[in-house]
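[Q] Does anyone have a clean structure-token version of this?
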Amino acid sequence: MNGESVGTPEEGDITGSAISIKDLDLWYGEKQALYGVTMDVPPESITALIGPSGCGKSTLLRCLNRMNDQIQGCRVKGTVLLDEENINDPSTDLIDLRRKVGMVFQRPNPFPFSIYENVAYGCRCAGIRNPPTLDKIVESSLKSAALWGEVEDRLDGPAASLSGGQQQRLCIARALAMRPEVILFDEPCSALDPIATFKIEDLLRQLREEYTIVIVTHNMQQAARVSDRTGYMYLGKLMEYGPTKQVFENPQNESTEKYVSGAFG
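[A] Here you go.
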């Protein structure tokens, strides 16, 4: 793979992909963690997963790029379709899957490299070596992550010198550099202050125009602010899923109503 054949994020050929989950069960050893989850995630939208701790939100999120495969004793039954292809098929190329489905974690985890190399690292691993191509990808990714204007004059500086919010946006830029179709966010603002949280939420709204986004959050106000659809999970089951306004203002499930009203959880 060379730089010319891969293309760069600014070329405009990125589109978010639809995800369809059907009858998804998951076990960690003998313990079942997900029970028959079925949901469709529309493309180029933000879907939030809410619910109390330990309800299966992050487990479900990790099913979307098969990160759970790294956990010994984990087994999955059911289908997860990405562009109508079942990612749980044994023939799935996990490297290609995780390029298509990027992930941003709870705490910023920049590599111990420069700002530039953090963004370029995945591209280099994919075989992109051409400096002008890498420069374009880095600049475009940092602009898409709303970070370019803050770091363009210190790209060779250490990523560790950035603030927590900037580091999280750098991690988003790192994911964007691989030109994904879907981006998963696992509590991306839990370690950030309100100002940094506002910037991340504003960025999510912008990214929704090109990418399919699924976010796990304990912050119900955040889910209400940024998401188009919301799924409420409890004890490994998807109790309710629908348009965010409906889930928060007119929930159809008693358990959902108690949770969003603060009666429990």
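[Q] Thanks! Anything notable?
[A] The two ends are 49 Å apart (CA to CA).
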